[in-house]
Design a protein that fits this description.
The protein is α+β, with helices and mostly antiparallel strands. It contains 3 helices and 11 strands, in the order H-E-E-E-E-H-E-E-E-E-E-E-E-H. The strands form 2 sheets. Strands 1, 2, 3, 4, 5, 6, 7 and 8 form an 8-stranded mixed β-sheet that branches. It has a 3-stranded antiparallel β-sheet with strand order 9-10-11, with helices on one face. The longest helix has 13 residues.
Length: 210
């Protein structure tokens, strides 16, 4: 452990790899949704504490402008989720990594806006410098993985528009909603703790349905 929390070290990498290897992930089999991938990029802060990267989308983007997101996007033709996650990480936050940095995949999440998103857990390491692409990202943050712990996560609420519970993760002075929230919650449950926890039953807030 670093003085301030969970250290980004080989012990953590081994634990994440073992838990992801042992997880029977649930892909979305339907062909009706467009395919996308996001990267749960794990790297260190200045104290060596394990963090993940979350971004604020640029305000001038044509879809989901200004929303909180993980590095990611739609798969190019012939591209795998792993390849897309690494490409988008390089394009959005300036971190270029090889395929051997991929630790594993978690459950696909079908969104209200017509995508099936595959979360890819990526080991960035200690020396990653974030360089946000201003065309896509207004800010990029390193958030300690320890921020995902606690009984207050996830936060669930009901809405009249759906019978499914709306999930959010409180952090950075706000609430991070699905789909990003489901990937962060599953990162904690599956990758960090080895608990086979499903997330595709969680709902998005209505503003994210478009």
């Amino acid at each position: 452990m670093s003085e301030s929390g969970l250290s980004l070290d080989e012990e953590l990498r081994t634990r994440l790899q073992r838990n992801l290897d042992g997880f029977d992930r649930r892909p979305h089999e339907g062909a009706e949704l467009k395919r996308a991938a996001v990267a749960l990029l794990l790297l260190a802060d200045e104290a060596g504490q394990a963090c993940f990267v979350i971004t604020r989308r640029a305000p001038r983007l044509s879809s989901h402008a200004g929303q909180w997101a993980l590095p990611g996007g739609r798969l190019d033709p012939g591209e795998s989720p792993q390849q897309a996650a690494l490409r988008e990480t390089s394009e959005e936050v300036g971190v270029t990594l090889a395929a051997d940095r991929i630790l594993g995949l978690m459950d696909d999440y079908p969104t209200r806006s017509g995508y099936a998103i595959t979360p890819v857990v990526v080991w960035g390491g200690e020396d990653c410098r974030l360089v946000p692409n201003p065309e896509e990202v207004s800010e990029a943050y390193r958030v300690p993985v320890d921020a995902l712990e606690g009984d207050h996560i996830p936060r669930l609420r009901t809405i009249p528009e759906s019978a499914r519970p709306v999930i959010s993760v409180p952090m950075l002075g706000t609430n991070i909603h699905a789909p990003t929230a489901v990937f962060l919650y599953q990162l904690r449950e599956v990758a960090l703790h080895g608990r086979a926890t499903r997330v595709d039953h969680f709902e998005q807030p209505v503003f994210a349905w478009r």
